[in-house]
Amino acid sequence: MFEYDRLTTEEAQILRTGLESLHLSASEQSLEQAIQYLDLLEKWNGAINLTAIRQRNRMLTLHLMDSWTLVPFIKDSELLLDVGSGGGFPGIPVALIRPDLSITLMESNQKKVAFLKQAKIELGLFNLEVIGERVEQSKPDKLYNVITCRAFSDLSEFVRSTRHLLAKGGEWIAMKGAIPYDEINRLPAEISTTITPIQIPGLKAERHLIHLRPSL
């Protein structure tokens, strides 16, 4: 059984109210893995700059909760690609709470790739694949229904560099702060855009998901 008393009062509150606000359920195993993931981030962060955020309560909000806002927009049995995954956001938190999904992390920085592979092993994430290469040079053996990123590049570059990896009928979902109107205006005319405002529990900053689809 997951023991909330392992956490500080503030951390436990963030986790409980965050999942409730996002209308998400998580198994006890997923919660254990989520805390273990934060432990790994703290352990590796001294040697590799995985995140500038050092406080555990802020990691819970800005990494776990932020990543979990993506979950309701991913259908069952879809293949998800997280581009420029860095420390594993949003791919690893999504993999923790949605073990039914097949998720690939793609990262070109080999030190970060080493962390991602170790996290996969230690967390027992059998639904996770880690690829250490530049996305534009990737020669896929499969195509993805959803391609996502957080702070990877501007939208035009995101679409251009990953278009060969998107399955027919699939979509890109970029995780952004304020609505990037300039980036949206630079997108090719054949790309349709839908914007979803996101509320992260305990965070007042703007967050949006930018959904992009190529015309058929």
UniProtKB/TrEMBL annotation:
The keyword Transferase applies. One of its GO terms (cellular component) is cytosol. InterPro entries: rRNA_ssu_MeTfrase_G (IPR003682), SAM-dependent_MTases_sf (IPR029063). It is found in: Cytoplasm. It catalyses: guanosine(527) in 16S rRNA + S-adenosyl-L-methionine = N(7)-methylguanosine(527) in 16S rRNA + S-adenosyl-L-homocysteine. It is an enzyme of class 2 (transferase). One of its GO terms (molecular function) is rRNA (guanine-N7-)-methyltransferase activity. S-adenosyl-L-methionine binds at G84, F89, V135, E136, R150. Its main location: cytoplasm. It comes from the Bacteria. Its EC number is 2.1.1.170. CDD domains: AdoMet_MTases (cd02440). Keywords: Cytoplasm, Methyltransferase, rRNA processing, S-adenosyl-L-methionine, Transferase. Belongs to the methyltransferase superfamily. RNA methyltransferase RsmG family. Specifically methylates the N7 position of guanine in position 527 of 16S rRNA. HAMAP family: 16SrRNA_methyltr_G. NCBIfam families: rsmG_gidB (TIGR00138). This is Ribosomal RNA small subunit methyltransferase G. It comes from Ferrovum myxofaciens.
